[in-house]
Write a structure and sequence with these properties.
Pathway: Cell wall biogenesis; peptidoglycan biosynthesis. One of its GO terms (biological process) is UDP-N-acetylgalactosamine biosynthetic process. This protein is an alpha/beta fold and about 525 residues long. The protein is built from 18 helices and 27 strands. The chain has two domains: about 220 residues, Alpha-beta prism (UDP-n-acetylglucosamine1-carboxyvinyl-transferase, Chain); about 210 residues, UDP-n-acetylglucosamine1-carboxyvinyl-transferase, Chain (Alpha-beta prism). Bound molecules: uridine-diphosphate-N-acetylglucosamine.
Length: about 525
């Protein structure tokens, strides 16, 4: 994880982390709690000066009998390795794309961002021994999650090559840094392990892409069903076991199969006393990945990948070694890169059945998709091979195994270059159409009615779009704009690259290696 200079805001954040570091005294004095029997750190013993209404960056050390020593920045440097710090946005970045280039060659697919974030959160369950997690993509989101873990006292080390070691045996706080949690959606997931392990936790409301209201009602009701009392105060969710000891297994039916709520409740139930039954849960592969990780740590989870989870709580989970599955959304994005440029590329590693929806749609459009070996997929949209240009199609997003909402923008960009009319219905998030206006600037003929877009087709084999400056407003929408730029005539400048950096590892180097003409331009951040 590379070093970059920090923004003022991040400097302040880091200062907070430095001034109130994980308290080694407190850590060593806290026995690793047997969830249903031993005492837990007491949030209510926090002095008034550090109570809920305190400054948002205040941490709640677990043991308050001794004040943590204040560290000078230089002393702090010895406890916070520089290479593991969050990168700063000291610069604005834009991607400058020259369109009309054909792609060829092979691209390596990184580990899944969303699975890695969930498993990193899940590593807080490991009260005995470190978790060794392989295939963690180097992204600003995974670095932020590392900061969230560190802010409660976990040790997070990057061992190189995508291997991250998290030692959460000595957690020293049940309140992760609100600033870090507020940057990403997945930061909120640590609520599950913290409350299950310590009987209480206080976590700020999450961040993430602005693609809808993204409420947390399912988390709240699910944790209540496991015997927790949940309060929202001053932008933070405070959860404690109602019996003062630990969570109790229970039954909960999710009104909607939310990925994050399923993951949070799965982690919580893994350490609750007794059996929990969670129904209508998310079946996304990333949820199954988290379940596999927890099982490797000693959890008892049946039904991962199905709509019902039966979880028998364990008193304590231990560390384990685990490898993150390949990122199906990154794979889908590169499949669109090939299709939108009417090219032929191969990608690996992939798990083909994770991609069946995308393969189905791209085949309908006229692409030829071939399994070239275990985990190696080839996609060709070269007109000579496909027997004509690509045709539009109907697409509706829905929870897995439906079409992923995280690929809707990229597929819409593709449809803007296909023949015939297409319809795109977004059913997961109510406000995930920011890319439409930017695609329209490139000349895409899209009419938006609420969350449904009518995409008009183009004449065969003509360049559908023409480049101009545009800006990403969210992660997947940003990727869609870059793809559209690759299909557009002339130069497209895509601003807001920080959104893309949240979720794509080496995005432009990978595109460059396939033959795209793309470069990153860096300008000083005018806000600093
Ligand atoms: C996760 C993914 C995100 C993906 C999304 C849907 C991570 C870090 N992010 O986000 O990339 O786009 O799944 O596949 O894994 N909802 C409620 N109440 C709740 C929770 C959710 O109504 O308590 C609704 C949301 O508003 C949304 C829908 O459920 O309309 C899906 O959201 P959810 O599955 O929770 O997405 P995330 O976990 O936030």
């Amino acid at each position: 994880m590379s070093i970059r200079s920090e923004t003022r805001k991040e400097r302040n954040t880091r200062k907070t982390l430095i001034l109130i570091p994980p308290n080694p005294m407190a850590s060593s004095s806290i026995p690793i709690r047997e969830p249903h029997s031993t005492p837990k750190p007491n949030l209510h013993s926090v002095p008034a000066s550090m109570a809920l209404a305190a400054a948002p960056s205040t941490h709640f050390p677990l043991s308050l009998s001794r004040k943590p020593p204040l560290l000078t920045p230089s002393a702090a440097a010895s406890v916070a390795p520089a290479h593991l710090e969050i990168p700063a946005l000291a610069f604005d970045h834009k991607l400058v794309v020259s369109g009309g280039r054909q792609l060829s060659g092979h691209v390596h697919i990184s580990g899944s961002k969303n699975a890695a974030l969930a498993v990193l959160a899940g590593s807080l369950c490991c009260a005995a021994g470190p978790a060794v997690i392989r295939g963690v993509p180097d992204l600003s989101d995974t670095r932020t999650m590392a900061a969230v873990l560190r802010s409660v006292g976990a040790r997070v080390e990057e061992a190189g090559g995508g291997e991250v070691v998290v030692d959460a045996t000595r957690v020293s706080s049940v309140e992760p840094s609100p600033d870090d949690v507020g940057r990403i959606r997945a930061g909120f997931f640590v609520l599950g392990p913290l409350v299950a392990r310590f009987g209480e936790a206080e976590v700020a409301l999450p961040g993430g892409c602005k693609i809808g209201a993204r409420p947390i009602d399912l988390y709240v009701r699910g944790l209540s069903a496991l015997g927790a009392v949940v309060e929202l105060r001053h932008g933070k969710v405070r959860v404690r076991a109602a019996n003062g000891k630990g969570l109790i297994g229970g039954q909960f039916h999710l009104d909607y199969p939310s990925v994050g709520a399923t993951e949070t409740l799965m982690m919580a139930a893994s350490m609750a006393e007794g059996v929990s039954v969670l129904s209508n849960v998310a079946r996304e592969p990333e949820v199954a990945d988290l379940a596999q990780f927890l099982v490797a740590c000693g959890a008892c989870i049946e039904g991962a990948g199905t709509g019902t989870l039966v979880i028998t709580g364990r008193k304590q989970l231990h560390g384990a070694e685990f490898t993150i599955a390949p990122d199906r959304i990154e794979a889908g994005t590169f499949m669109v890169a090939a299709a939108i440029t009417r090219s032929c590329i191969s990608l690996s590693p992939v798990i083909p059945y994770h991609l069946s929806c995308m393969i189905d749609k791209l085949s309908t459009a006229g692409c030829r998709i071939t399994l070239r070996g275990p985990g190696i997929l080839e996609i060709s949209a070269v007109p000579a091979a496909t027997g004509g240009d690509l045709q539009g199609f109907y697409l509706k997003t829905s929870p897995y195994p439906g079409f992923p909402t995280d690929l809707q923008p990229q597929f819409m960009a593709l449809l803007a270059t296909c023949n015939g009319s297409s319809i795109v219905e977004e059913s997961v998030f109510e406000n995930r159409m920011h890319h439409v206006e930017e695609l329209q600037k490139l000349g895409a003929r899209i009419k938006l009615h609420g969350s449904t877009a009518l995409v008009e087709g183009r004449k065969p084999r003509s360049l559908a779009l023409s480049g101009c400056p545009i800006a990403a407003a969210d992660l997947r929408g940003g990727a869609a704009l870059v793809l559209a730029g690759m299909a557009a005539e002339g130069v497209t400048e895509v601003g807001g690259v920080a959104h893309i950096d949240r979720g794509y590892e080496n995005f432009e180097p990978k595109l460059l290696s396939l033959g795209a003409e793309i470069r990153r331009e860096v300008t000083p951040n005018s806000y600093l």
